[in-house]
Amino acid sequence: MEATAKVVIIGAGIVGCSTAYHLGALGWTDVVVIDQGPLFETGGSSSHAPGLVFQTNPSKTMTELASYTVQRYGEASLDGQPCFHPVGGIEVAATPERWTDLKRKHGLARSWGVEAHLIDPAEVADRIPLVDPERILGGFWVPSDGIAKPVRACASMAGDAEARGVRFHGDTEVTGFRIAGGRVRAVETTRGVIAAETVLCCAGIWGPRIGRMAGVSIPVQPMAHQYAWTTPVARLAGATEEVTHPILRHQDRSMYFRQQGDSYGIGSYQHRAMPIGADEIRSRRDAGVMPSVLSFTEDDFKQPWQDAQDLLPALGETGIARGINGLFLFTSDGMPVLGESRAVRGFWVAEAVWITHAGGVGRAMAEWVATGKPSIDLREADLHRFEEFAHSPTYVRARSSQNFREVYDIIHPLQPMEEPRPLRVSPFHQRQRELNATFLEGSGWERPQWYGANAALTHGRHVPSRERWAARYWSPIVGAEHLATRERVAMFDMTPLKKAEVWGPGALGFLQHLSSNQLDKPIGSVTYTLLLDEHGGVRSDLTVARVGDARFQVGCNGPLDLDWMQRHAPRDGSVQVRDITAATCCVGLWGPQARSVLEQLTDDDVSHAGFGFFKARRIHVRELPVLALRLSYVGELGWELYTSADLGLRLWDLLWRAGRPHGVVAAGRGAFDSLRLEKGYRSWGKDMWAEHDPYEAGLEFAVRMDKGDFVGRAALERRGDAPGRRLTCLVLDDPAKVVMGKEPVFARTGGLRPPGTHRSDAADAAVGFVTSAAHGYSVGASIVYAWLPAELSEPGTRLEVEYFGERYPASTAADPLFDPRMERMRR
Ligand SMILES: Cc1cc2nc3c(=O)[nH]c(=O)nc-3n(C[C@H](O)[C@H](O)[C@H](O)COP(=O)(O)OP(=O)(O)OC[C@H]3O[C@@H](n4cnc5c(N)ncnc54)[C@H](O)[C@@H]3O)c2cc1C
Prior knowledge:
The protein is α+β, with helices and mostly antiparallel strands and 827 residues long. It is built from 19 helices and 41 strands. Strands 8-9-7-16-17-18-15-20-19 form a nine-stranded mixed β-sheet, with helices on both faces. Residues 10-16, 34-37, 42-46, 49-52, 173-174, 202-206, 210, 225, 227, 267, 284, 292, 326-328, 353-356 line the site of flavin-adenine dinucleotide (FAD).
């Protein structure tokens, strides 16, 4: 075996082979792929996956990864045999709830550019003759879904890579790494040591163990999942092809099906979660043939087998020929784990990837390694997205087991995790409970969505009611809290906002280099700025307060910002970056009466003249040292008031008592979201991400091209004159309607179409998709932000937003809808 390689990939399963193929295609050919098993039926998960590819996913990223995968496998072949059977896919609804949800899914598919149709039971049975149409209400049909042949696809992509110079070694086990100076230097194997500057762990269920060898935590959970094959089905007798029936999902019973020649394959997630410790999984050497397969537990398959025969009565004449409990990976949030370790540079991870996404993930990993940025945004799948607690084995096991149980459930976008809760609470939690808060959860934090104590505020107020999906995790109190903020004053718990402290002699230069706005301003200045990547994409938006000559407090979006900063920090110790979130707490005190409340509690000058807009001051609120930032994400006069966590409860109580005469209310995230949307304030990750540049996102005001060089500047200079797409504000014609986000937007065709009816694919193609939406209680409008082609973003353009199969007429509007002259915040 060779002694050196530029890149070593561990694992010749579908992820390793796809990445090797794409690295080769990018001209990276000094690549070695190692597997402990024989090539390409290695004994990993890819060796026995039945290969169903359903592309549509609530995540745009996952859908795009899957769509590219379909294309990639579709192009591949081995010895004249295809690697993908484009038979289409159908998800059926057996309950009214599922049928409604399939309408939402139909919207999602078209938001992400996947052709999809809702079809009636007869058409489902027409396409899959074994289905009993009496059992279902309809189906969601995606013509381009199908069956992948994973082992064949591995061999085909490996063959192409080999032709370019990439080398593959089977029967070679990785046993350790040589790491020095924070970098991986070499890979130790049973057949020698290979020096390498880049190592990519694509070891599937063995990933956590490989990570541990390198000192890198990979928070994934191997789980067993049942799959069985029937004996031949009489109605399929004489079938000459492997598969002609579309693949089938029966999510109401957590099951899926595929034809396999003259029999059927059945997968079930109905059984109890069966997490397996990473150390319990044997190596290929110890296990023999299939270390990723455990024996079939028949009892767990009794009910699914019954359910299978109910939906596909023809299976009643068959038996179960064979079954397995196959192992593959789950994660705490259902997404893959991708990226380069910060602790061990050069050590990359591509784990918890399905066959469905492996084509796209392989391309993205290759691009990321070779060019520094994948062409599909991977923020939701980044290795560094996790908080520290989310690496604990107990958490990973509990959350992954939950995700296993819910894999086919109808999940509302606001649905909080069930366990472990409460995990993180702010110092105000006790008071929030006393105010009868309804808590949702984000990054482990208990976050009040609204407060039951504010119920009386709804009396006499017009708050449009909501129904069904939109009414979940919502209360009319949200509207009342919104209005109280605009009319009087409210206290928002901003503690969960990620905060970092950046300090040291190099701090200013470092932050200037990383961000797009001018930060070289006097102490006490606050600046809204963007973190761009080298390609000019918006990686994050930050609020940076200069609190000392060489000290900054940075309001971030999450762990990825900390990672980005720490990754880029000079190694000479001139800059320190520290997460201070847990040590601090914050109240957003906002509303026209905010000053009247604060001035009662402080001797510091909080007048407009004494404490200007976008300024930071250290003040005392009674005896409490507080860092006050005069800004507001809700578009009102006020401050973010930060103090240390131990003093938080006292801060809350002081503000509350002083605020009572002014009608202060505690307000939750529901009000916050609708207030910020009225004001047009973007939410990173939801409204824009690294795929978008600042001009498209309407954030050009945060870019100072004249300030000198910064990351992303050169790319912005190279960009064309006018953006091709824009994040655009829309208003629904009917203010009583509301949408939730991710819905497709269509050009106006005149006249509404009955839901569920087909029309030509071209007319059915969405022109954009919704990012955020909320009712604007002050402006009396239903607000939607959407990505649209620039030519459709001019104010007054007529469009339609599709919500559960219904088209809502809408018009684009000038942004923002509320207080565009910024008068309320600057007084
Ligand atoms: C029953 C079942 C059904 C499934 N059905 C589907 C489906 O229909 N559609 C879908 O999209 N997904 C499906 N999946 C999931 C899918 O199979 C996996 O997510 C996917 O195969 C993972 O690919 P991988 O390349 O990451 O891992 P693997 O295929 O497991 O590859 C990892 C490789 O790393 C090698 N390796 C590990 N440790 C070492 C070491 N120390 N040294 C050298 N080599 C090492 C292993 O030998 C292995 O070949 C299913 C999974 C199961 C179990």
